[in-house]
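Severity: low
Component: inverse-folding endpoint
Summary: output formatting inconsistent between runs
Steps to reproduce: submit the following structure tokens with default settings.
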């Protein structure tokens, strides 16, 4: 086979470390009746490991130059769809399967990490969990705690849907070609305890506005809101309008949104 020229523009950093590949495939206890969506199988390094778990697999790959590699491993339980994941109809594609649990497992193309996660959430396919390789600094934003510089509206958006845990860091030398930064594998588990939120639209708008100008406090960012109401909830939680959004835990944003929804 002719030498494969990796396309930087498609985030083609292929994972070559056997141990990391095994650790990813085994981090979630997969069962035979589970369905796994893999995004960007590339030359199939992770796909092969997932095939060992005997699950049904749907893989989305944008680059048809990978076909000679993937043709070799495709089988009755592995369906490769050559398509941009962002343009796919996930609901339709999974509707052909009967499955117990649905997972997304991928070494993501980093240039579209957040759009891919948003696509999965907005597709309403009710995933049980996701295991995603992302840039390490992005992983830190996903799992950030309030009062840290990584904590932002993206943290809140994702933690609203999932319990998120960084499992392990993967050094750049584990990839071919090696990216400039380290990566990390992050687990997204479907929330067992869901937030008691009355109105998602009010909540997400509130969070967006609160973080609008990063250096400004809540009083300045939330000028269009009923500040008296907001202050009441903040005070009950030992916070004030002088605090910045990055100091506010998700549960306090939920309480404020619920109070505003009354
Ligand atoms: N899974 C392989 C591995 O671990 O070695 C490859 C991972 S590589 C980081 C990302 C893969 O995503 C590449 O194969 C790339 O072609 C593919 N990709 C990039 N953009 C994509 C898109 N919009 N939709 C589907 N696949 C995409």
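Observed output (run 2 of 3):
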């Amino acid at each position: 086979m002719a030498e494969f020229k990796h396309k930087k523009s498609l985030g083609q950093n292929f994972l070559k470390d056997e141990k990391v590949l095994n650790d990813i495939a085994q981090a979630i206890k997969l069962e035979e009746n589970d369905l796994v969506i893999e995004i960007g199988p590339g030359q199939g390094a992770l796909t092969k490991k997932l095939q060992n778990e005997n699950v049904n697999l749907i893989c989305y790959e944008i680059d048809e130059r990978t076909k000679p590699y993937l043709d070799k491993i495709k089988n009755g339980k592995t369906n490769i769809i050559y398509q941009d994941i962002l343009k796919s109809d996930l609901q339709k594609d999974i509707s052909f399967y009967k499955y117990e649990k649905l997972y997304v497992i991928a070494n993501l193309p980093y240039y579209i990490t957040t759009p891919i996660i948003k696509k999965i959430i907005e597709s309403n396919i009710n995933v049980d969990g996701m295991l995603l390789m992302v840039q390490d600094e992005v992983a830190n934003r996903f799992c950030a705690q309030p009062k840290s510089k990584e904590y932002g509206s993206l943290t809140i958006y994702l933690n609203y849907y999932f319990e998120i845990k960084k499992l392990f860091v993967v050094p750049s030398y584990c990839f071919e070609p090696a990216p400039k930064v380290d990566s990390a594998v992050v687990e997204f588990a479907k929330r067992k305890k869901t937030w008691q939120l009355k109105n998602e639209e009010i909540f997400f708008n509130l969070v967006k506005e609160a973080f609008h100008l990063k250096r400004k406090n809540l009083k300045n960012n939330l000028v269009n809101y009923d500040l008296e109401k907001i202050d009441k909830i903040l005070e009950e939680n030992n916070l004030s309008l002088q605090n910045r959004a990055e100091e506010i835990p998700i549960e306090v944003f939920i309480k404020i949104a619920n109070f505003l929804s009354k």
